[in-house]
């Protein structure tokens, strides 16, 4: 099964896309399957936290529209740090509009973010729009990817089993750009060539006051089947974000090693 296979083996599968290979390779190089969600409110904090957690992460996840004072220079600094510390940048934009609109939105994001998230609500044509943007530029081909949201971590969300099934189908139709699915259980992703990204991870809390549900790093990797785990406040709001990132990174990676070695 997917969860028993190592990232190395999965990256070498014929149907694994170039950008997905790049992610697998990066996790193995850094021994990190930690994605940090830098949910802060100013550009200064964004760069400050990124500098601190950069050495420990495979992906940095942003909600750039929630951050004040972000300029071209901010995005350039972010890209420089991504190079320096060897991580990818993912804008968690959760695009959800018709193909044409999504294309317009993605034209801006594609310049600085390696990865982007989308809802599958509008169907396959939205993915086609993204594909067109990527295909327009030779330098982008193989260097940009999409995570599709199949499940949400919060209480009371409206996603049904049927929606999940249809989402998986779409992900298989656009394998050259879809790197994986954002989901909460190990039985959603059918193919080892796709990556399971799972948010809702915290060592200390089991929920927040607005419906977010948390699991600890062991549960999320062993029980829920996450390949890469997303941690936000557990690291960003810690007194020492670098130390917290290191702790999460080690716990998550050791659990992944445990999962694939027995
Ligand atoms: P937290 O502080 O660890 O709760 O942050 C979780 C992050 O993951 C935050 O940026 C959310 O927008 C994101 N997220 C999520 O929490 N749950 C989901 O199902 C999806 C994204 Br999709």
UniProtKB/TrEMBL annotation:
Pathway: Pyrimidine metabolism; UMP biosynthesis via de novo pathway; UMP from orotate: step 2/2; Pyrimidine metabolism; UMP biosynthesis via de novo pathway; UMP from orotate: step 1/2. GO terms for molecular function: orotate phosphoribosyltransferase activity; orotidine-5'-phosphate decarboxylase activity. Keywords: Decarboxylase, Glycosyltransferase, Lyase, Multifunctional enzyme, Pyrimidine biosynthesis, Transferase. Residues 33-248 form the Orotidine 5'-phosphate decarboxylase domain. The keyword Cell inner membrane does not apply. GO terms for biological process: 'de novo' pyrimidine nucleobase biosynthetic process; 'de novo' UMP biosynthetic process. Substrate binds at residues 39, 61, 153, 212, 232-233. The active site is at residues 92, 94, 97. Its EC number is 2.4.2.10, 4.1.1.23. In the C-terminal section; belongs to the OMP decarboxylase family. This is Uridine 5'-monophosphate synthase. The chain holds residues 218 to 479 of 480 of the full protein.
